[in-house]
Amino acid sequence: MNILSMKRFKKVRYIFITILLSLLSCGEPPELIRIEEGKKFIRWEAVKEFEIQRRYLKWILPIKGEFFGMQVSERDEKEYKLFICNASGEEINKTVVKNGQGPNEITGLVTETLMLSKDGRTINFYDGGYYLKSIDTESLEISTIGKISNRINKYGSQYYIGHQGTTSLETNNDLTITSFESTGFFKNHVYYLVTYKGFFNGFRVITPLKKNIPMWLEEDYNIKKNGFIVDYYQRLRWARLFSIDWKRDMIYVIPDIEKAEIERVSFNGQKTRIHLDIDQRKYKIRQDKFELYFSWYKQNLPKKLEKLLDFKFRIPPHAPALQGIKVIENWLLVITGNRDWEKKENEVLVFLLPSLEYKGCFKMPFPTAPYLNLIWGPGYFSSRSLIQHEDEYMTLYEIFRYKIK
Q1: Where do the structural domains in the chain lie, given as residue ranges?
Q2: Which of 20, 107, 229, 251 could form a disulfide with 265 if both were Cys (CB 3.0 to 4.6 A apart)?
Q3: Using CA atoms, how far apart are residues 337 and 345, in angstroms rounded to an integer?
Q4: What angle do CA 18, 25, 321 make, to 5 degrees?
């Protein structure tokens, strides 16, 4: 064998070994679920119950035939207004709460962690990832239940709930499942599914998981010191998206919104990857909707940041594959990026649990940026959208009652 042939042989062998190691490192290939195109799921029914438009509206919860909400006075969130209104939006009761770390103040409420008590008397929430607090729905008074330890046994310290990105949180009877992330989350993208009873009794880590972040976003955060890419889907990219099948002790997770894959995690930490046979390249975007969001973003930028950083607004060729996930009784709902931009609805794929047999699809309301997540409650869900009213940007908040017939 001549020298040239030997070099070619070594090069081919190197490429072969590299590919082989790459394949081995990926673990078992994911299960594949075929999606029958055109198959409809006709058992879903949703009716709008309430609608309200306000500036800087954070959230609304239906309580005993009325609606309890929180509105920010200004973009800097120096104070918050808590209010109760009727079905027509007329305020019945209200109070103003200062931004602060005092026992009756709010630092930064994590909207996804709102938990209404069974009797409707209190709303518990995680404040800034540090404290568990409650709001009395009659007196509107805030009280602190306790401080959250930032130490996880066997994992060390510096962990928080919903601090550097939103997180799902679900409670069944006295058991809660949510996620914690470390202060280094933006560097390693690792977070931890955790479970506990009551006020962090029997706290344990189910398993660590990793958010898959696209290369262009990693370069933006790690290399470009004076540049920042504004991404319409930014909230979804960093959010920990999962839902719980309490009947079968399973958690269904979206690891990467750009990939048509979900992960099934048992309560003891065993994981299975599942690939959905869809083509997200067909999921169209709307230039004008992106421009509306970018205009709102620029208007709300602090002047100091606007001068320090070079903001670049990214418009992708298509929408992400997956944008939400929810378990309802024996059904798994997977919200895709296939959107009707005029009706503000996204396609939902429905699977029967536990077999994951595909049962069809339907369309449901889904929020715009910057929100891009549904808030689920018992028998209802709420959607927030950014709208422009004359020269002002408003939040449109809608609450729907649903059932699967």
Answers
A1: 45-147+374-405, 149-210, 215-370
A2: 251
A3: 10
A4: 105
